[in-house]
Design a protein that fits this description.
With about 375 residues, this protein is mainly alpha-helical. It has a domain at about 40-210. It has 15 helices and no strands. Helix 2 (about 45-55) crosses helix 8, helix 4 (about 70-115) runs antiparallel to helix 8 (about 160-210) and helix 10 (about 220-250) runs parallel beside helix 12. The longest helix is centred in the middle third of the chain and has 50 residues, at about 160-210. The chain starts with 20 loop residues before the first helix and ends in a 16-residue tail after the last helix.
């Protein structure tokens, strides 16, 4: 009796697969991530920011979760409120300081416009250009009403550009508020459902990279936590050390300049730029020795920090060398802005971890392929007596 073939063909393929199932799963996962990055690229920055904050503050969330007896929604809400307080408090302090400085500056401008003002000493004593700038200052601001004339001239000829700039600033502020709101929403769900999602990711990772996923996956949270902690410590340290140096050198407002230098230390090249500008100000004000001494001390201190301390604190268990650390920081800032300070070192740490994993596998494979060494003792011929 002839065997009947099903209408839609055999139920199981008898031909071998073009790609092994594991390889096909890996490529499918890569394609899914690429498609997601393409269609949702506008949300990548707030999502990554929320994940970075969640991973960096995960130990705090775990303590809150234990304090509220396992209520994940309540713990996530409290953690989100703490993050908001941590973000809003510095903004309020900076805003109050900026308003006070603006009021003082406007008061000075009104008085200078009423009576006229002579050239400031630090401008007149600038090398090479001080005399020229002093003449221009006297011409425009040395007589009563000078500031008003300059403002009227500039605003009258650039009123359209000023209007467009104000509109662009308003649009950017609204977009920033929406981004922060979306980031906070993602952060809440990252806290509440993060453990469950990580468990699912671990299941897929062990399927795609069996035997290696456990080592590679633990690099990400450890690297993010160490990067955030390390950069915070470096910012505080450089702000305090250079603030004390500003005070010793006789710089006005050393506390304010120290805080600014500490904030700028989060950005690659920010602390050297701040220190250099302060040194130039000292030298231009007539304190040449103090300016040179401050520049020399700041250069040595920043070189030691960037060459020795920063690579040890930034990079987590991978212990990134100096060059990959700088590449990660600069490349991250260039592509993703401030968020790249934390994402860049993480990606560089992952690349270094994968590279070391491959090298280790090749070394193990090469050692296994070497023929065994013959350790059989060679018989020694007996000597004739």
């Amino acid at each position: 009796m002839q065997k009947q073939i099903p209408l839609f063909g055999p139920t199981r393929s008898v031909r071998p697969a073009v790609l092994p199932p594991l390889t096909a799963a890996r490529w499918l996962l890569v394609l899914v991530f690429a498609a997601g990055a393409y269609f949702f690229h506008g949300f990548i920055v707030p999502v990554l920011a929320a994940l970075v904050i969640a991973l960096a503050t995960w130990p705090v969330y775990r303590r809150l979760l234990a304090a509220v007896e396992g209520n994940r929604s309540l713990a996530a809400t409290v953690a989100l409120l703490l993050i908001l307080a941590f973000l809003i408090a510095p903004i309020v302090l900076v805003a109050r300081y900026a308003v006070a400085e603006t009021q003082e500056w406007l008061t000075w401008v009104v008085e200078a416009n009423r009576t006229g003002v002579s050239t400031p000493l630090w401008i007149a004593t600038l090398p090479w250009v001080g005399e020229v700038l002093s003449e221009q200052w006297t011409h425009y601001f040395g007589h009563p009403g000078g500031f008003g004339e300059v403002v009227q001239t500039v605003s009258g000829s650039n009123i359209r550009n000023i209007y467009l700039t104000v509109l662009a600033a308003g649009g950017s502020a609204f977009s920033l508020m929406l981004t922060i709101l979306f980031m906070l929403i993602v952060l809440f769900f990252a806290y509440r459902d993060g453990a469950r999602f990580l468990h699912q990711v671990d299941l897929i990772g062990e399927r795609v990279l069996p035997g290696r996923w456990d080592r590679i996956s633990r690099v990400v949270p450890a690297t993010i936590s160490s990067t955030v902690t390390g950069m915070t410590i470096i910012a505080f340290g450089e702000g305090i050390v250079l603030g004390v140096a500003y005070y010793i050198a006789g710089v006005p407002s050393p506390v304010t300049l120290g805080v600014i230098t500490g904030v700028m230390a989060l950005i690659p090249g920010g602390a050297p730029l701040s220190m250099t500008l302060v040194s130039i100000y000292l030298a231009a004000s007539g304190s040449l020795f103090a300016g040179l001494a401050l520049f020399a001390w700041g250069t040595i201190e920043l070189f030691i920090v960037d060459k020795t301390i920063r690579p040890k604190l930034v990079g987590g268990p991978i212990k990134l060398p100096f060059l990959p650390t700088i590449f990660g920081l600069v490349g991250g800032v260039k592509t993703m802005g401030f968020l790249g300070l934390f994402v860049g070192p993480v990606l560089m740490a992952l690349l270094v971890a994968i590279w070391r994993e491959w090298i280790h596998e090749l070394e193990v494979t090469a050692a296994m392929e070497q023929p065994p060494i013959d350790v059989t003792p060679v018989p020694v011929p007996a000597r004739d007596e």
